[in-house]
Structure prediction request, 537 residues.
Amino acid sequence: MAEPELKSRSSRESIAKAVSQEKMGAAEADPDQDGLIAEQPSSPTTPMVSAAAVTSPTSSSPAKGEKIELKRSITLLNGVGMIIGTIIGSGIFVTPTGVVKEAGSAGLSLIVWSVCGVISTMGALCYAELGTTITKSGGDYTYILEIYGELAAFLKLWVEMLIIRPSSQYVVSLVFATYLLKPLYPNCSVPDSAAKLIACLCLTSLTFVNCISVRAATKVQDLFTASKLLALLIIILFGFIQISTGDVPYLRPEKAFEGSKMGVDNIVLALYSGLFAFGGWNYLNYVTEEMINPERNLPLSIIISMPIVTVVYVLTNLAYFTTISPQVMVESEAVAVSFGEYHLGVMAWLIPVFVGLSCFGAVNGSLFTSARLFYAGAREGQLPAALGLVHTDLFTPVPSLIFTCFLSMMYTISQDIFSVINLFSFFTWLCVGMAIAGMLWLRITKPDLRRPIKVYLFIPVTFVLGCVFMIAVSFWAAPFECLIGCSIILTGIPVYLLGYKWKKPHVVQKMLDIFTMFCQKIFMSVPEEREQHEAAE
Prediction:
């Protein structure tokens, strides 16, 4: 592993320096960054139109001297809502069957869910240390960039941009659309065209909310996180009511572990399914720069949210087992709906509604963090400069948000999107493992680096081994698909060389500058303002 690089990068230093000198009077130092990292990257964007030119004196412009940047507005509550809302999607309502299918019994399934929650919490704690040591937004991408260099970071960005983020956002919005329309088609399948139309409407409406205000986006996230927790609490409540009656044949001590599959391959695949259900615990690290007091609120958000998710997952599955046998659960297409029909009677329609709300909130959280990922890539010069612009009045990354929405809607033309997603089942664990292994490397090579949070050594070591395990299982379970995924990842190398490393001819650079200027005008956005000494480097 190469020597860590905690140096900021910029593709157009001289231009950024000129912009910085032009705005010296307006730029103010950011006190939250003192001592956390030596340098911050200057904007890679060519400032064809300045903030003063974009904002009319008569418009609702920011106060004179206010810095154009993404503002710190994410509170502790917002952070908790972001983590819980992105982890809990539709899976726990619809198909929590992967674990029980491999475990074979209710008792072993609950143990596996608990273990997966503990492992995921360990990874999240490691990210609390990473997020307070390397304080830039961008999550895994930023950590890989700082530790492993530009090529590894670009490949991460390449796959996230092309496949992982847009496909997952579209899939969840499609599930939302299906549940929303199902009451209109009670006796047949929901038409694909109608579901796709509603899915695109979901994406565009949430993109609009995210463009308008960070506060509006976080309020939407908090609201829908509360709604999905309410739905799960209703399920858990009826589960405990059923337990109080004593009629729980699948949870009795003599039957709880009946049919358990204790083979190594079964346990491995059960853990694999459970850990996948906890995906999203690292999303808050993508917006570190927008958090209020991240040294306090980032770790606290993780410490509060991860136990909540773990307890809710375990108790929800416990509630399912009070009514539904492991065999029936494996065969069910919508476990929560079956549970609701048994306990809620005429009010069973509430469960599909809550599933839709859960999906809506998950899409919002994913859009919010995806836009920050692409914004961070543009700020480092690895994506077009237009994606690194900030709206002059709203202080949101409007071009990046619209780009994210557009990529997601492109997947409406896909006929088998799940096969595309399955090609990269190992990729998330590879990136997370690299980031946490890099954290250990920084402890060795940069022992004096400021670390407000420092977890016990066995936690990152154990989690890195867990990531290696997950990657190995992915290749063992689907070797051909994973090899295809690796081939697609490697296609990013020529793109990296031509699009980032290659010194472009003047005519190409001129076209890029014209496109950036067009985006600045059409989206009322300008490059983020940085400090003078940062822009000059």
Summary: The CA atoms of residues 147 and 438 lie 6 Å apart. The radius of gyration is 24 Å. The longest strand covers residues 389-391.
